[in-house]
Amino acid sequence: MLRYEKRTKHHAILMALSVNTITVKEETIDDAVAAFEGLASQEKIDAKRIFILGHSLGGMLIPRIGKAAPNIAGFISLAGSTRPLEDVILEQTRYILSLDGKLTPEAEKKLNEIEQQVAKVKSAQLSKDTPMTELPLGGPAKYWLDLRGYDPADAAKSLSKPMLILQGERDYQATMEDFANWKKALGSRNDVAFISYPRLNHLFVEGEGKSTPAEYSVPGNVAKAVVDDIAKWIKSFR
Question: Pick the catalytic residue: 77, 171, 178, 211?
């Protein structure tokens, strides 16, 4: 996360340049690779048995993390989406705005704005000079161009390491559609396992009924079954 504590003109320019050029490599992949390399360099750590777990965007980027660090022993994806990120954002927005039933005029306006931003991401006219204000989440064009054509499930086929794909069935951010896409792409492999949990949301916390954003503010823990399943899966490779 970027911080703007030093408000000098020079610092502001540098930070603006960082925002305008950031991609998922700088946002997520580099950190995961650095963590792996840092652990692998420790004398008391078996460098051949380091597994990487990614949640949400991290789960979506497992194939790219694996490509950047081929010596990782295996991967666990929690709630990793397989669809274009801009489509996921639009679907989430529509879901949240529809929770109270019929869309209000204000909600319709907001949804229309997101639809236009998503259309801009998909447009052939998208360039690195497209203003961030015209794109989803105010992200830079370079960020969206970097993700163009990225299909996580298909890309995962090139990973030769074992994978564990976990999904909460009440998740409205990464959904069972994504879980099905992972299965379709990797289901024939003996070194890939799939588990879904009927009562868990995007945070892998238990609940009932339709999941909502308000649910995330309620204190909770990752379900014990998830922790147990991850531990059991990793231990199976001893």
Answer: 171
